Amino acid sequence: MITEGRLGARAVIVGAGISGLAAAAALASFFETVELLDKDELPRTPRPRKGVPQDLQVHILLKGGELAFESLIPGTRAALLTAGATEVRQTEDASIWERDGWHATRDLGHSQLMMSRPAFERVLRRQVLRLGNVVISDRTPVERLPSGGDLTVIATGRGDRLLAGVEAPETVLGIEVSYSSARFAKPERFRGEERFIACIPQPPDDRYGLVCPIENDEWLITLCSRFGERVPDDLDGFRAHAETLPMPDIAERLREAVPLTPVRGYRIAEARWRHFDRGADLPARVLPIGDCISSFNPTFGQGMSVAAGHAVALRDVLASCGGDLDGVAAAYLPRAAEVSRQAWSLAAMVDLEYPRTKGERPPNFGKIVTGTEAMRRAAALHPEVQLLRFEIGNLVKPDSSARNGPAARLVAREMARAGGRPRER
How confident is the model over 249-272, as a mean pLDDT? Predict the structure, then answer.
């Protein structure tokens, strides 16, 4: 017997990582039981696991992702802080060197929570289990689509095989990104520092660096490169690579930092977006989520937040479906695609500025780059533009917000000043 207000007896989710946990939060109000199946043994403590090969790398929860998780499971933000997440005020606690200069230091009224991927996953897993009707079955590999559920969600990540046979249009970029990370204890003079540091040079310079303050007053430090210029995965080489960055802050911290883990390298050859919303022949009542739909250049830190956005879209569709589970896919997939579209656009436009990136550039690519540069320059001058840029980049507001309103007029003025187009009379 199904309780009044529920849409079915059992929903099944394959994959108990971030996407699967977000999906469970979305489904819990609509099904008697939500079961997550994962091939890994899920650890009781926040430690890396085999099924997440990049979980020793930096993971950043964008502000939009944090808001989405809070919407799915109220109290998640407080739980993350209790577990030791570092709260980084934007941009008072951030040092961001982008292209040719530092971001202005202002109070934008936002903060971001930073912690390691294993710790974040553990907090979210505990939050989901507190919902009461979610069951996690680990050490349960799934070789084919499960049966017996009223709805099935595939959350197996960028390496998914369960939906490999489904034909769907794809957008693919050959990005050839490599990055290496390690976890460090801070030297005495930096203890208590809660500063996020980013070095993002001007293309075609393909170096990149991040310092993320995480739980236990530690750092996760990532260095990135592209197109065969691999970041070293030995400590001396890692430190030497940091010394080549066009700003000194990351190298300065690395010189005295004490490594707590080996330096681990990782490589992503492609960014891929599967357009399931364009008539793909998905099995009935089977839905993809997260990286199964769109997997991005990971250095933009969008993956967890996009998964949360997909889950919010799924929850909202279920709330309005009127009990028709057969119609959920048709309503959900376009909404999930819109979440992916904004994130893809933000990352792809930067990726495509590198001449060696393989992929089709839009006909107006030059105009898009000009507009993006104008917004960056305007953000340095005007707090309202800097705030809007943060909110769009963090998936808090739609990118259409950049086309209307006072901030948009300031960007247009900067484009005109720089010769992007004639001034309006």
Answer: 95
